[in-house]
Each structure stands twice: as structure tokens, then as C-alpha cells.
Amino acid sequence: MTLHEEDPATPPEGSTTPPADAVGARPRTEVEAALRDLEAEAAAPHRQTQISRGALAGYIWVLGSAQTTPVTGDQSSAAPNDEQITAELTSAERQLTDPVRRDIPREYVQGVWDALAWVTGRSDKKP
């Protein structure tokens, strides 16, 4: 490699490459911490909302601990890949924008969308 060649193992300057254990665009440890924080916040049943339940379901699913996807209800046996996360995020968007398609509470879907949008880096606002 010459002085002006780029090392293929080194990401270009200014780019952000997710770590090997990434969940979407976030480090797995960051998503696990977000789940713990939300679980602690919503620990008492009277403090849970449909939004927090949806966000919890989104986090649990992306971490590979759910048997079904949070919006579509499809079977899920492992942590989803980026394509699957994006597909579920798109399904949430469709349900949020088209009430005819919505078969689960809007606030729950909003919580799922919030969690998945944050995980994928589409939003900086962590639920």
C-alpha cells in the first residue's frame, strides 16, 4: 500500500461504521441500555403506556428476544438483520399514516416506530 492508497479495513474519514455487534446503526450495548432504561421507567403497570409498550416490543425484537415481529406479527426466531428492521419500520409507518390498515393501537405502533427509527439511526430521539 502506498502513501495515497486507502486501507480497505479503515472506514473513510468522517464516515460512521457501526461496530461488528451493531443492532441497526447502534452498538448492541447502547440498545440494551435503552431497553433497561425504558423497562425501569415503565416498571409499574400504571406507568406503562401504549407508546412505551410498543418501544419495549421494538427493542426486545431487534435484540433477538421476541418470537414475533412487533407490528406485522410475523414469526421471528433470531435477531433481525437491517433489511428486516427496515421492513418492520416501513410497516409501522404504513399503519401510522393509513388508519384503515391499522389493526393495533396507534400509540403502540408509534412506540415501535420510535424505537426502530432510533435503532436504525433515522432518528436521534431515543424513546
Number of strands: 2
What order do the helices and strands follow?
EEHHHH
Radius of gyration: 17 Å
- For the termini, the CA-CA separation is 45 Å
* Beta-strand residue percentage: under 5%
Low-confidence residue ranges: 1-15
Q: How many structural domains in the coordinates? A: 1
Q: Tell me, what's the shape?
A: globular
Quick one: biggest sheet? 2 strands, antiparallel
Computed structural class: mainly alpha
Strand order of the largest sheet: 1-2
Count of alpha/pi helices? 4
Mean pLDDT: 86
> Percent range for helical residues?
40-55%
Structure characterization notes:
- The protein is mainly α.
- It has one domain (22-120).
- 46% of the residues lie in helices and 3% in strands.
- The protein contains 4 helices and 2 strands; from the N terminus they run ββαααα.
- It has helices at 28-41, 50-62, 82-97, 106-120, and strands at residues 22-23, 26-27.
- It has a two-stranded antiparallel sheet.
- A hairpin with a 2-residue loop joins β1 (22-23) and β2.
- α2 packs across α4 (106-120).
- The longest helix is centred in the C-terminal third of the chain and has 16 residues, at 82-97.
- The chain is globular.
- The protein starts with 21 loop residues before the first strand and ends in a 7-residue tail after the last helix.
- The model is unreliable at 1-15 (pLDDT under 50).
- Residues 1-28 are annotated as: Disordered.
